[in-house]
Description:
Layout: E1 21-27, E2 33-37, E3 40-44, H1 46-52, H2 54-61, E4 69-70, E5 73-77, H3 82-93, H4 105-117, H5 121-131, H6 139-148, H7 165-175, H8 181-189, H9 193-198, E6 200-201, E7 207-208, H10 212-237, H11 254-257, H12 259-273, H13 275-279, H14 286-295, H15 315-339
Amino acid sequence: MDSEFSSNRHASPLTAFQVPIRHPELCFEDGNLAVVTGPEYFVVHRGLLSRHSELLRKRLVNIKEDTRLLEGHPVLTVDDDAQDFAHFLRALYGRLTYDDSLGSFPIVSAILRLATKYEVSGLRANTIRTLSLSWPTTLAMWEVREKAATNSEGMYAPRPNLAHPLLIIKLAREVGAHQLLPSAFYDLSRYLPSQLMEGYIGPDGVRYYLPDDELCRVLRGKEHGARFFSTFIVTELEGRGPSVHCLHRNEVQPALKRACQMAFEAVTFELIRDVNGMVCNRNSDPLFTIADSVLMQTRDDQPGVENKAAYRACEACRMDYAAVVQAAREEFWRHLPAWFELTEVKNWV
Length: 349
């Protein structure tokens, strides 16, 4: 070290007698800037930081070359967590790969926080795009996410593969990534009220809770979704008549003529019982249950054979009903920001 080093008001806790430790990876031989954060320092390229962040460029302009040298380089002191800043540097240097899984969440959240803080717009956008794979703005992407979280036995098991929605809501609020909020709130609304009150213990061992106002938003949104689902059953399933193209419309026997109506009555009964929701670990999930009302009549079909079910609507009636279901689910998705009172969410699909 070329001169005595001491902390200033920007530094994380370093005592007057503590010397920062050289980071074992992010110290480049041709680097021309020492960045100190907490107990560690990095030797990086001044030009790279300036190119990505106007905020850092302005700070670097004010550094005088002849004061406070570390390994012969001028020193920039930041008040970020050392590990978080290392993730941030790796992302800037293109030396880091990450995804939207729970295991990568500490890395993704650190990068997003610092990309937001230092106004690195490209990195921020890429990180939000990665998170949006699991916390999407479109129903189509939500379907991809839900399918990926369902195991080979048909059980819904998002944890530990996906970050808990509590963590997503906290991060989205902190960095202003409001587009992540509706899907996170909906995911959280599928939990039982007792689970919401218990909170969640994160990978860092900290138990996270929703603030009271956020908890009330979740419960009110949950009630809106339940009311939508009840209305759907009443208006689209109870007493549903056959399609104008029903294959049984010319049957003489009353039982055969009413076959499709009886099939939809059976679907109504199953939805009210919520059997499939409990079996598949998907109770309190209106989006899934509405879609499942189409699939439950053909789920056990085998290819290459004539499939017969006790109550099964004809193909024409099922096709008509499937169109109704798709329209209802798209409407449900559009309502999420309003139901959860997320007025900050703009241009929701």
